[in-house]
Amino acid sequence: MSTTQPASAVGPYARGAGRFAMIVGFIIVLWWAWLLVTDDVPDLYTRPVAMWFHIAGEITTAAILIVAGYGMLAATAWARKLYLVATGMLLLVVIHAVAWYGSHGDFPMVVAFCILAVLSVFFALRAEE
């Protein structure tokens, strides 16, 4: 029993969703790497345990996005289900980011994360077509 579908069975929306998931996953990893290398995580000193759990949650979300995106591009049988889980995790990350940036008065970042949420839902719906 094969875990892949024929290339013709993979629609353009599934491929787009896979690319989106991989791009967002890599951006999350790069973003945290940048913040940690530049020592730009003030909560890491005031709330270290909570912050490390937060970082671990976001890196886990990124890893699952990357794996699900790869699976979507490779047309594996498990990819659509994992993609929905990854999208749900991403939406939780986005909700937290909107709350954090909103409480700090950073309106452009709130708008950026709201756009990311809309795109996440758009691709999740399209991946199911």
In words, what does this structure look like?
With 129 residues, this protein is mostly helical. The chain has one domain. Helix content is 80%, strand content 0%. Helix 1 (12-37) packs antiparallel against helix 3, helix 3 (48-74) runs antiparallel to helix 4 and helix 4 (79-103) runs antiparallel to helix 5 (107-127). It is globular. This is DUF8058 domain-containing protein. Residues 16-125 form the DUF8058 domain. The chain crosses the membrane at residues 20-37, 49-70, 82-101, 107-125. Pfam families: DUF8058 (PF26247).
What is the string of SSEs from the N terminus onward? HHHHH
Helix content: over 70%
Round the mean pLDDT to the nearest integer and report it: 89
* Rg from Cα: 16 Å
Number of domains: 1
Broad shape = globular
Number of helices: 5
Largest sheet: none
The oligomeric status of these chains comes to: single chain
Indicate the proportion of strand residues: under 5%
- The residue ranges in which pLDDT falls below 50 over 5 or more consecutive positions are none
Structural class of the helix and strand makeup?
mainly alpha
**Through-space gap between termini:** 24 Å
How many individual β-strands? Answer: 0
Pfam family, one: DUF8058
Protein name: DUF8058 domain-containing protein
Domain DUF8058: 16-125
Transmembrane segments: 20-37, 49-70, 82-101, 107-125
